[in-house]
Design a protein that fits this description.
- The complex is a heterodimer of chains A (453) and B (478).
- In chain A, strands 1, 10, 11, 12, 13, 14 and 15 form a 7-stranded mixed sheet that branches.
- Chain A is globular.
- By secondary structure, chain A is an alpha/beta fold.
- Chain A is built from 16 helices and 15 strands.
- In chain A, helix 7 packs across helix 8, helix 9 crosses helix 16 and helix 13 (276-288) crosses helix 14.
- Chain A has a domain at 155-207 and 249-327.
- Chain A is 36% helix and 18% strand.
- In chain A, a hairpin with a 5-residue loop joins strand 2 (120-125) and strand 3.
- Chain A has helices spanning 6-10, 14-32, 37-45, 73-76, 80-88, 106-117, 141-150, 179-191, 209-222, 225-229, 234-248, 250-264, 276-288, 316-324, 422-427, 443-449; strands spanning 62-63, 120-125, 131-136, 168-176, 199-207, 271-274, 300-304, 330-333, 342-343, 350-351, 356-361, 373-383, 392-403, 414-415, 420-421.
- Chain B is an alpha/beta fold and 478 residues long.
- Chain B has 2 domains: 7-264 and 458-472, Aldehyde Dehydrogenase, Chain A, domain 1 (3-Layer(aba) Sandwich); 267-444, Aldehyde Dehydrogenase, Chain A, domain 2.
- Helix content of chain B is 37%, strand content 21%.
- The longest helix of chain B has 19 residues, at 316-334.
- Classes of the chains: A alpha/beta (453), B alpha/beta (478).
Chain lengths: 453, 478
């Protein structure tokens, strides 16, 4: 199904989709439950033995924290063998050939997983700074590439052609083991046939998982006093120093990159995926240089992830599109746990592709909302395109979801534009309590914690 | 007075005057509770004390008269006889993390904390009554005569909302030190301080103690209020009870002329020696005591146990007995009476997710006993606390095995407040090194949540620091 066009997928009748989803989720569950112990435990805990109707599967969503439920001390103690065992419970791929001898950093471990088992990790960081590790098995690579590709389309417009000749702009490093990096890798291999020159990255290095994880690791260490500090290896700390040093020249490098973009690619057709803060930075850089309407109008820009709580200037959408020189910026909602994102329609709603089995859960009780009408609650999904990982995950996002017809004419489920994190909602007031401990001590750590891009 | 399900009114009280105009709305925490209160920014001029000379009336009130006043106030604070306190109790039931029964007990017994003998003991042990009543003379070696007296200060108190007792304690401390207090209330308990102030106005509207107390709610960090208020001509001290964000906000205003008395946010822990496993009966006693340290006040306090280091041993035999102790602790928490502890009123969703994830993950690293609103005991299967240890709340304890008690000592940090220790001999053995690592209060296991009367807190003496210590010197005769 991922192989049909985005428009065809989104145009499917919801009853047909539901029937296919029920068959697919039953098949996936039957296939994986005995092989993935966490899934078996979750099913047993919630008394789910069979999926008779779609909402039965709402009890089979992993909390997003499952993918970071390993003790961070395994990293400090270089117990990558145990970390591999832990990860092995979360993927159908065979990790038995992964050789962790002598590995002392997360980056090296990620490389070993790719080299020895063809498993690519997609990592994410939350507010705690602890990395989640989402394993993508070899059988899931192709689907993810396709699903990711479809998310970049604008519903209602024909599937773009000739993309193999269109360069991609990446405001980031060439090598990243997050969702962004996985797509870059996939495009180089599948779209550009290995032609690296089409991938215009700001940096040609690597976004280090060790550096990304340092904030969480140092904060965890601080919470354990002398004991914690003694567990952080000096090699990692020196890496932090190098990184901080490298960051000093970052503004200069960014400026150079933008100069190149506005100069060399002026008027050309390009592609880019990013978030609003990236686009905003680009626009500000362009305004400083007095440029606007930079690229060809048939360029493709995708924005994912909303504003992440940042305060945006008025009319930012229209201003940024005008600056880039395109009529519209495609928008989408999703999470790293999903193979692709949900594109926003003409009516401003995010629509699910047929392989995304959505749920709307009561944040208090975890009960799924009936699959009709409009409800506000916690967003859950089973991504049925995954063959080697259980695709069920419960987010920390509050969304408003409608099962029914959208104003754009397509069937739901779809969700409203206004998405927020439960953690922001809880913490956004003026509660004062004497209990607590600092999460991060200094600006360097806060900076590191915000680095996930 | 608005008193429906959704909107409460929180008055602004300025030195005996109740203000309920120029209301603005505030979203309280949890449950969609919101309340209205006057826009404090419009009343800054009257909120700050025009001139220090206005403090003189307090100086004419004797210590005994202050005790009389507080004693009478204490008798009027029961929600059974006091509609203001009843309303504060009702709002707290909607905003607090404490269960209704626990809160009810707290409001019923709040007045008792103003008992004159208790207060006299506290003052005597900290400031010394003589220093409040007059100039205490000391003769120095070089013949100089120094006379020292403790004066009150113009102080903003940023009180914590996790237990209503902090408001009444602040009122008492302000009166006894003859200060002028502006209490900034928190959104998780916006009304208790105002209810106490209203009771004082009903009881003695013109008394200097009534006239040196103001109560205001503004959202912490609101520059339109704080930039005006936090100036050295307006106040001398800020006493801040916790709240990481609030202390960070305030830090920006601290400079010459304004002193910060910070009762920083803190967490508490427990150290249990291997003696706990001497026999079945001892284990049960330890489990019961630990259940109180962790479960009382629904673990909302900084004093509550969270991470529990246990010298069970980290081998298979050690883990087996630790897991058994974990079950006993969980059962003991469930058996706590509802006046002391209840299932979670409001779950921290982030913590709940972490615990669920551990369960799904299996018990290789951590064993989860319980879960959900009832609370949980997370038993580490290696000598490491869970990575989310700073989130522990809602009656969730993390038992961590160790071979050597020194592991626990090294895990103490500068924001470790109370440590409950078993047995007593271990406490004596470890107390110096625990203090040096950052611990601030060492108690017998089972006594973490007691409210002692020694006046020490967070390694400082808040009573003494609330005063301005003034010296008069008389040179030796030539």
């Amino acid at each position: 199904m991922v192989w049909q066009s985005a428009n065809d997928s989104l145009a499917m009748d919801s009853k047909d989709v539901a029937a296919i989803q029920l068959a697919a989720v039953r098949k996936r569950f039957a296939h994986m439950r005995e092989k993935l112990p966490p899934l078996a435990r979750l099913a047993e805990e919630n008394g789910v033995d069979d999926i008779v109707e779609l909402n039965d599967a709402a009890k089979l969503l992993f909390k997003h924290s499952v993918y970071k439920s390993y003790p961070v001390s395994l990293i400090e103690k270089s117990r990558f063998d145990r970390l591999t065992t832990w990860l092995g419970n979360l993927t159908m791929a065979d990790l038995s050939k992964v050789n962790t001898d002598g590995i002392e950093s997360v980056d090296d471990w990620l490389d070993a997983l790719l080299r020895d088992a063809n498993v690519r990790i997609i990592h994410t960081t939350g507010t705690s700074g602890k990395l989640s590790f989402l394993p993508r098995g070899p059988l899931d690579a192709a689907q993810q590439v396709r699903s990711g590709r479809l998310s970049q389309e604008v519903p209602g417009q024909p599937e773009p052609r000739g993309l193999e000749n269109v360069p991609t702009i990446v405001v980031g490093q060439r090598y990243m083991f997050n969702g962004y990096g996985a797509n870059i890798e996939a495009m180089v291999q599948n779209l550009y046939g290995g032609d690296e020159s089409k991938m215009l990255t700001m940096g040609d290095g690597r976004l280090s998982a060790d550096v990304l994880s340092l904030a969480g690791r140092l904060a965890a260490a601080d919470n354990k006093g002398d004991l914690g500090r003694s567990q952080i290896s000096p090699a990692i700390l020196s890496r932090l120093d190098q990184f901080v040093e490298a960051q000093k020249s970052a503004p200069e490098r960014r400026a150079k990159f933008f100069d190149m973009l506005f100069d060399k690619l002026r008027g050309q057709r390009v592609m880019m995926a990013g978030n609003w803060s990236m686009y905003l930075e680009m626009m500000e850089a362009g305004r400083e240089r007095g440029v606007t309407g930079v690229f060809s109008p048939d360029s493709h820009f995708l924005c994912a992830g909303g504003t992440k709580g940042a305060v945006m200037p008025d009319n930012y959408r229209a201003d940024i599109a005008a600056f880039l020189g395109v009529p519209i910026i495609a928008e989408s909602y999703g999470m790293s746990e999903m193979s692709g994102l949900m594109p926003k329609c003409e009516a401003g709603k995010y629509h699910a592709f047929p392989w995304m089995l959505l749920f709307l859960l009561d944040p208090e009780t975890g009960e799924p909302a009936p699959r009709e009408g409009t409800h506000t609650g916690r967003f859950g999904v089973i991504d049925l395109s995954y063959q080697q990982r259980w695709g069920g995950v419960l987010s920390g996002d509050e969304v408003t979801m409608t099962f029914g017809k959208c104003a754009c004419g397509r069937d739901g489920p779809f969700i409203d534009e206004d998405v927020r994190r439960y953690s922001e909602k809880e913490g956004g007031d003026d509660k004062i309590t004497c209990a607590g401990a600092p999460q991060a001590h200094d600006n360097a750590l806060e900076f590191l914690a915000n680095l996930d891009s | 007075m608005t008193m429906n399900d959704k909107t409460f009114r929180v008055p602004l009280v300025i030195r005996g005057k109740i203000i309920e105009d120029n209301l603005v709305g505030h979203g309280g925490r949890g449950g969609g509770v919101s309340f209205d209160s006057p826009d404090v920014g419009r009343y800054i001029d009257s909120l700050v004390m025009s001139s220090p000379s206005a403090m003189l009336d307090m100086n004419r009130v004797s210590f005994e008269e202050i005790l009389d006043y507080l004693d009478s106030l204490g008798a009027r604070l029961s929600p059974k006889v006091n509609p203001w306190m009843e309303e504060a109790f009702e709002l707290s039931c909607r905003t607090s993390g404490l269960g209704r029964e626990i809160l009810h007990e707290m409001y019923l017994t709040m007045g008792a904390s103003l008992n004159r003998d208790t207060l006299r003991e506290a003052v005597e042990n900290t400031i010394g009554v003589a220093h409040l009543e007059g100039w205490v003379e000391q003769r120095l070696d070089n013949g100089l005569i120094a006379r020292v007296r403790a004066f009150g200060a113009r102080t903003v108190h940023i009180v914590a909302g996790n237990a209503p007792g902090t408001s009444v304690l602040t009122v008492a401390r302000n009166a006894l030190t003859r200060g002028d207090a502006i209490i900034k209330t928190p959104s998780n308990d916006p009304l208790t301080a105002a209810a106490i102030a209203r009771t004082m106005i009903d009881m003695a509207p013109d008394h200097p103690i009534t006239r040196h107390l103001s109560i205001a709610y503004w959202k912490g960090g609101d520059k339109s209020v704080e930039e005006q208020l936090y100036r050295s001509r307006n106040i001398e001290k800020i006493v801040a009870w916790g709240g990481m964000a609030s202390i960070k906000h305030i830090a920006g205003y601290i400079g010459p002329g304004i002193e910060l008395v910070a009762l920083d946010p803190k967490l508490s822990s427990t150290i249990i020696g291997e003696e706990a496993f001497a026999d079945e009966e001892t284990m049960q006693r330890v489990a019961n005591a630990l259940a109180i340290d962790g479960g009382a006040l629904n673990q909302e306090g900084c004093v509550n146990a969270r991470v529990v280091w246990v010298q069970s041993g980290t081998d298979a035999k050690g883990l087996a007995r630790l897991n058994r102790l974990g079950q006993m602790v969980y059962d003991a928490i469930q058996a706590l009476p509802s006046k002391i502890s209840t299932p979670a009123v409001r779950m921290d969703p982030q913590l709940a997710d972490e615990i669920e994830a551990l369960k799904t993950n299996g018990d290789e690293f951590y064993r989860v006993i319980g879960g959900g609103r009832q609370g949980a005991v997370l038993v580490s299967q290696m000598d490491e606390p869970v990575d989310f240890a700073t989130l522990l709340a809602n009656r969730v304890l993390n038992l961590v095995p160790m071979d050597d008690v020194n592991t626990a000592v090294r895990a103490v940090t500068s924001y470790t407040q109370t440590i409950g220790i078993y047995p007593e001999t271990l406490k004596r053995e470890l107390r110096d090194s625990l203090a040096i690592h950052g611990a601030q209060r060492l108690v017998s296991l089972g006594h973490a949540v007691g409210m002692p009367n020694h006046g020490l807190q967070d390694a400082i003496e808040p009573w003494r620091r609330m005063c301005r210590w003034i010296v008069e010197e008389e040179a030796a005769a030539a």
